[in-house]
Structure formats: C-alpha cells, structure tokens
Write a structure and sequence with these properties.
The protein is of the alpha+beta class and 281 residues long. The protein is built from three helices and 16 strands.
C-alpha cells in the first residue's frame, strides 16, 4: 500500500518562479532608469572660473592669458562632461583704440582652460577683461561673470646693437636683461650670419621704481666672443635716475596764508588804535 503523498499542483510550482522573474524584470528596469545620463547630470558644484596672466603690461604689447572654468550642469555628479562649457571674452577701457582680446568666444576643452591673447594700444590706462563662463546641459544653464584688471603703462626701454663675429653663423640664443642685478626678462636674438648686426630692444613695464639711480645691464659672456655689442664689449649697462614724488607744499601754503592774514590783522588793529588815540586829542 502506497501512502498518499502531497503533491503541489503544477500552478503552485510555477508561481514562485514567475514572481521571481517579475521582480527581476522590475529591478532591471529600475537599474536602467538609474543609468540614464539625464539623471546623473545633476551638478554637485556651481560654475567656477578664473583668469590668470600679467597685470602690468606695456603699451602696444601682446600678452597671453588663461581662462579656466568648471562645474554647473555641463559636469555630471561623477565628474563626467555631459554638456557644454563656453567662455565669452570682452574688453573695456577708456580708449579702445588698438585694444582687443581673442578669441571672443571659445569652448572650454577637457583640460578646462582657454588660452586668450590681449593686444594693447598706445594708451597708458586700465583695461578690464570681462569673462562670462556658461555651463549648459539640455534645458539647464548656469553662468558666472569674472573681471580681470590689467594696468597698461609706458615701459622703460632698453636698446643696444649686437654684432656677430666675421668667422661663423651664430644660432638663435636668449639674452637676459637685469635691473639692479636682478633678472627682469629675456630677449631672444635670432640667428645671425657672419658680420650681421641686430638691434636688441626690451620693454620693462612697471607701476613705478623707487627714487634714485637704477641700472639695466646685459651680458654676452655666454656667447664666448662670437657676438659683441657695437663698441666691441660683451657687457652693456645703462644707468638712469628716478626722481621722487613732487613735494606736498599744501601745508606750507596754508601756514603761510594764515601767517599773512595774522600779520595783516595785527597791522590793521594797531592802525585803528592809533586813529582812536589821535581823535581823543
């Protein structure tokens, strides 16, 4: 005799399996939704940016500046670039003759920087570089505005004539310019053929030097006599004198005026007293 055995109906055996498949399918759908880039694109940081480059430049100069930008909707929370970062550049000044910045608009690449060129005109003035950084993804847009101030000044100019020797060609080389014993810049001398001369010129922009004597100097010692200055020497120096600020004589003017009116008042008082004394007689 065989004992009765409890056997689950076929439907009951398939029930848990179908439920598990349904749960797995829902899970996969949710995982797919979480993987959509639009959901990940929420920014974890606002738009940021910066401008770097020289703040004191010479008239008629051409200088390089770096614009950096990051953040906003264009950068996903995991740091992935999902949108567009763009820099818009402009300049303002009292006299814009000959002044321009390029490019006026540029995408900010993966290295998050833009290299711009500022060309200056003949006027000594303050020039402002305006930068707007825009971060855009789909319908989201965030911007930041930056201002970078550049002082344009009339520079000190150092000029000298170099002469190559008659024996051989001299390849291009740098020349260091010193001011009071400290390096302030370099000038690249092009390749010189035998006997060729070259007019070296260096502009030194500054907001001011201290009163007294100052000396620019250039040495050609590293060229071992292959190049000299026009006078045959290998060292050139130029000394100039900077006067101090004009004295402020306002205090002395005021003191002199007060003293003058004081003396005038005493004089008139004494004259009046004498007249009163004479009238009594």
């Amino acid at each position: 005799m065989v004992a009765d055995a409890e056997v689950d109906p076929p439907m009951n055996r398939r029930g848990p399996t179908a439920f598990a498949i349904a749960v797995l399918a829902v899970g996969l759908l949710l995982a797919g939704a979480w993987g959509v880039p639009g959901v990940r694109a929420s920014a974890t940081a606002p738009v940021t940016g910066s401008v770097s480059g020289p703040t004191v430049v010479a008239t008629h100069a051409s200088e390089s500046y770096t614009v950096n930008g990051s953040g906003g909707p264009a950068i996903a929370s995991n740091g992935t670039r999902v949108g567009n970062l763009t820099a818009f550049l402009s300049v303002t000044a009292a006299n814009l003759t000959g002044v321009q910045v390029t490019p006026a608009e540029s995408p900010i690449g993966p290295n998050e920087s833009v290299h711009a060129t500022l060309v200056l005109g003949p006027s000594a003035e303050v020039v402002s570089i305006g930068v707007m950084i825009s971060s855009v993804y789909q319908k989201q847009n965030q911007t930041i505005n930056l201002t970078y101030t550049v002082n344009v000044v009339t520079p000190y100019v150092v000029a000298a004539t170099l002469v190559a020797g008659a024996s051989s060609t001299v390849l291009s080389f740098p020349v260091e310019v010193d001011l009071d014993g400290s390096a302030v810049g370099t000038v690249t001398v092009p390749t010189l053929t035998p006997g060729q001369s070259y007019n070296l010129s260096f502009n030194y922009p500054t907001l001011g030097l201290s009163p007294g004597e100052h000396t620019f100097s250039i040495s050609l010692a590293s060229e071992h006599g292959l190049v000299t200055f026009a006078n045959g020497g290998i060292v050139y120096s130029s000394t100039f004198y900077v006067t101090g600020p004009a004295p402020n004589d306002t205090l002395w003017y005021v003191a002199g005026t007060v003293a003058f009116f004081g003396v005038l008042f005493i004089f008139m008082t004494r004259v009046a007293a004498r007249r009163r004394g004479a009238s009594r007689k």
